[in-house]
Amino acid sequence: MPDPLDERSRALEAAFFPSHASDYRDAIRLREQELAAVSALREASGITEEPTLRRLAALGIRAETLAALTMIPIVEVAWADSRMDVKERDAVLVGAESVGIEPGSPSHGLLRIWTEDRPAPDLLAAWRDFITALGRELEPDERARLGEKLVGRARAVAEAAGDILGGGPISPEEAKVLAGLSDAFGG
């Protein structure tokens, strides 16, 4: 059964946008979709730089993809020594919260799962492949900013976890993983 409000909405749009103005209507719809995509990307990733988010949205990056993109560096650093006890897992989660990954968010939930069960090794390979492909689409400064944000967040989580656990600065194993993640961005 047709929705009377939907019918009236379409009639209003048709009256407002004459047939020769359909390009304007399409532009407004695209702008709305872009704003929604940027908002979803911001929520999924914690990235706040509007130009970076708009560029990623324009490339068709979905929130789910970006959530994985931002979480994988954190997970790799967390598992740098090939083990994770309960205290370390909790410290990683608190560290993630300190850099804006809110409890209850999809990113936090995914991180919690990955701190309990180490992801398959091919996850990092898929991440690197994606970063390489994405890097070809981004300008060098955009790629550098994204790398700084993602690897910087992983470093911040490692440092926060070290402080919570009383271990101080990041470990040599974590430093090695961070260097490898940074290399994926070309530097």
Notes on the protein architecture:
The chain has 187 residues and is mostly helical. It folds into 2 domains: 4-53, no CATH class; 63-184, no CATH class. Helix content is 75%, strand content 0%. It is built from 9 helices and no strands. It has helices at 4-16, 22-45, 50-58, 63-78, 86-98, 106-116, 122-137, 140-165, 172-184. The protein is elongated and about 65 Å long. The model has no long low-confidence stretch (mean pLDDT 78).
Q: State the end-to-end CA separation.
A: 58 Å
- Tally of strands: 0
Fraction of residues in β-strands: under 5%
Helix content: over 70%
What is the molecular shape?
elongated
- Report the average pLDDT across residues: 78
> Runs with pLDDT <50, length 5+?
none
Concise structural overview:
With 187 residues, the chain is mainly α. It has helices spanning 4-16, 22-45, 50-58, 63-78, 86-98, 106-116, 122-137, 140-165, 172-184.
Which secondary structure elements does this structure contain, and how are they paired or packed?
Blueprint: H1 4-16, H2 22-45, H3 50-58, H4 63-78, H5 86-98, H6 106-116, H7 122-137, H8 140-165, H9 172-184
Helix pairs in contact: 2-3, 2-4, 4-6, 4-7, 4-8, 4-9, 5-6, 5-8, 8-9
